[in-house]
Amino acid sequence: MTAPEPPGGPARATAMGRVLAGALVLAVLAYSYGAQRAAGRDRLVDFLGYFTNLTSLLAAVLLVAAGAVALCGRPAPPWLPSARGVATACLLVVAVVYDLAVTGAGGTAAPWVSAVLHVVLPVVALLDWVLGADRAALPWRRLWLVLPYPLVWLVVVLVRGATDGWVPYGFLLPEHGARSLALHVAGLLVVLLAAGALVWAAGRVPVPGRARVPAHHP
Fold it and tell me: Cα(189)–Cα(187) distance, rounded to whole angstroms?
């Protein structure tokens, strides 16, 4: 059996760029967590309780995985394009919510860290998603995949807010009342579905070579 050949030219550059981008984001997250530990905020569960940090971590791991798979000359496993699509949609929500609701609210991260995680990473992820030729477009019937991860995060955050009083963002504070929480959660889910629809549609932008990627989805 012939071993798979690693990609060359632009495909190799794209794969290496993904690995580098993912590694840099992981380094930024490690720096940010180290800075918070130095400031006495050393609970990892709180650090990862921020949707930005957790989503950035997952997106960085997926970027490294996609780049490594491509560098090995192997086709992406069936779950990887879907996971990347979900991560890209969530990163768009990170950018939108940060700009509309969190900016100026006294975040604890350094300004350059916020810029990397809330602006640079979402833009890089979206461009990689739109221009990447190593995946098939995701079927619309699987748009629901953007919901489970944020819903689990929301449930955990709301439970923590009701028990130990910690929430990552002020608009999720339980003292605002059930109506306010319900409206904010509904708004977040609407924005999330809109971002998912944008990512799913962007995945259909014609790119040379994409037609040769087999669709792994039934």
Answer: 5
d(Cα 147, Cα 192) in Å, to the nearest integer? 8
* Total length of the chain: 218
| Domains of the chain, residue spans | 9-208
pTM exceeds cut of 0.90:
no
One-letter identity of residue 125: A
Is residue 57 within 8 Å of residue 48, measured between CB atoms?
yes
> Which of 89, 63, 88, 66 is closest to 77 using CA atoms?
66
The helix (run of H) or strand (run of E) holding residue 151 is helix 148-163
Q: Which residues of 61-95 are buried (b: 16+ CB within 10 A; e: fewer)?
A: ebbbbbbebbbeeeebeeebbbbbbbbbbbbbbbb
Query: What is the Cα–Cα distance from 119 to 92, expressed in whole angstroms?
Result: 9
Q: Which two tokens stand for residue 99?
A: 């700009």
Can you tell me which residue has the tokens 């994409």?
A: 210
What tens digit of pLDDT does each residue of 27-64 get?
999 999 999 898 888 899 999 999 999 999 999 999 99
**Alpha carbons 182 and 154: distance in angstroms, whole number:** 11
pLDDT tens for 2-18 read 445 555 577 888 899 99
Which portions of the chain are predicted below pLDDT 70? 1-8, 101-108, 208-218
